[in-house]
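Help wanted!
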Amino acid sequence: MEYLRQLAAIVWKDVAVELRTRERIAAMGGFTILVGVLFNYAIDPTVVEPQAIASGLIWMTIIFGGMLGLGRTFHLEEEEGAFQGILLSPIPRDALYLGKVVSNFILLTAVTMLVFGVFALFFGLGFGGHPLALAGVVLLGILGFVAIGTLFSAISAGTSMGDTLLPILVFPLLIPLIIYGVTATSRLFQDLPVSEVDGNLRMLGAFAVVALAAGAGLFRFVVEE
Amino acid sequence: MSSKIRWSGAGLGFLGVALVLVVHWMVFFWVPTERTMGIVQRIFYIHVPSAWVAFMAFGIVAICSAVYLWLKDERLDMAAVAAAEGGMLFTAIVLLTGPLWGKVAWGTWWQWEPRLTLTLLLFFIYLGYFLVRSSTENPEKGKRFAAVVGIVGALDIPLIHVSVQFFRSLHPEPVVINPEGPSLPGDMLTTLFTGLAAFTVLFFAFFLFRYSLEHMKRAMVHRELAGEGSPLQGGVAS
Amino acid sequence: MAREFGPIQAVDGVSFTLGAGQLMTVFGPNGAGKTTLLGILSGGLKPSAGEVMLRGTRLRAGDPEWHRRIGVLSHKSFLYGHLTLEENLRFFGRLFGLRDLSVRIPERLEQVGLADRAKSAARTLSRGMRQRLALARTLLHDPDFVLLDEPYTGLDAHAAAVLRQVLTSLKDGHRIVILVTHNISQGLELADRVAIQVRGRFVYLGDRSEVDADSFERAYRERVEEEG
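Answered by r_m:
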């Protein structure tokens, strides 16, 4: 019970700070819209229909936009040494990690909704007839992404290379997520039956579970002095 | 202790080099040419054993890293570094020999063949392992970071493996050649197993040498810190 | 009630014992290892050898129960500039699992004279006010054992008076306080025990009653020059 209260305190604090500074959401939101604009000119419509590659573009936008925000997860704590203050409190390290995952997940869900909005508006995309299954695929996917990204942003924040290191550490690990996420999304866009993405959902779920368990177990070794 | 490790390394090294020479003799003069793929198939007696060693090395890295985080025994970290460096070398051999074969067999340098893709990703995980290790002020922190990268990488490898296979199954290629073939004739199997033995022995020779080198390096840093307050890594955390 | 503290074998052979209600000041030049000493005592850093005991409990680095009993005031405030004073305290209070925050927070803000600023963002505070808020955060969970790193630095006269008052009430409440500074007169003021740390080692450790300010200052300069 106290575990959940401590976890909730982290989430509440992160969301409150983000709502006031709007630092990360502004950067990620702006990035998303601009990427939509760039894609419009990067794709030759006489060769490819944007619809045909929409699921891949959407996932790449979420991943790249997400990296922007995830990389800053521990920077907002730096200014007055507040993170050290958290580490000197009795919060279990896994609760701290999971709290950070939840607040990053909330942030990334907001960005993802914006991504879908931008693609719908700019490319006139419909998203198929299974909104619930689509939401399941996307939310499980970003949960796994956030679980990996939060752990590794704590690592990259502790190195002299900082954010530049994050993609090198995270991208190779995200391959399963991209493969299952993109194929499932693409099938749902084509209005294939939901049973077609069952296996993908299971794999995305497995990825998220493994990533969360590893992060919760290993986070304390990353933050200990 | 340390000299015993070096002597074992030297012994294994001689044995490994001898075996590697034997394998090359077998590859060039002894083993029959595979009928469908022709002469180029012979590269697999180098390619497959390297891949085996690269993944075994990563297993060692992951296990040593996990136990290191638990026991904080310096020797486990040294073993993990030694294995990772050997692993990166053999991963590079796989990534060089794969496209060489691919150019002849597929007509293109690179194909998203699942095992080759997996090895490429493994190479980048190793790269991350060394980058986090070398970019922290406090070396202890770098060791822990690297251990976490090693463990998460090892947990992710099976998922990557399954997913790249799945992706491949969606995009079947016209020329699908199962590299090892379903059942190799006896002579080829003998050559392959000699290759596996040679590269495994050679890897452990590298591993022991690298381990004792790491051991000496750290002993030197210790001596300098204890002696004249060397400028090398001000170990006192603040 | 027996409240034992010590012996520490860390930061090069440092060892001492403090009783309940005692305040010890550790003097030392920059880089003497004072902050590292506080890091070990706070449970943030693992000592390479030796141990810390508080009322018969041995410190294990990263042990939540230890964190519950210790308050740390660092030279950084550990505050979030975009949260209000009240929110900052509520956040840390929740991390410590405190239940009575609606009573406790106004009380603590009153104690450090910031009650009227409860709803302003912490970044609008002056340096002295921020330090007072950091003090309220340090003491929010009523720690048995309080560590202060250069608490007087950058304080205006009012804030320094608040700090003095709080330290006195901690001593009256039988808490153990360790204060680290290089300012002799402020450090001696409320001390019961004094120590000088140079290059990681305690080169002097004694009762405050044994030293007078002037000769202590002279002795301090000598030791620092000798050793440093």
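OP: Thanks! One thing I noticed: Confidence is low (pLDDT under 50) at residues 228-238 of chain B.
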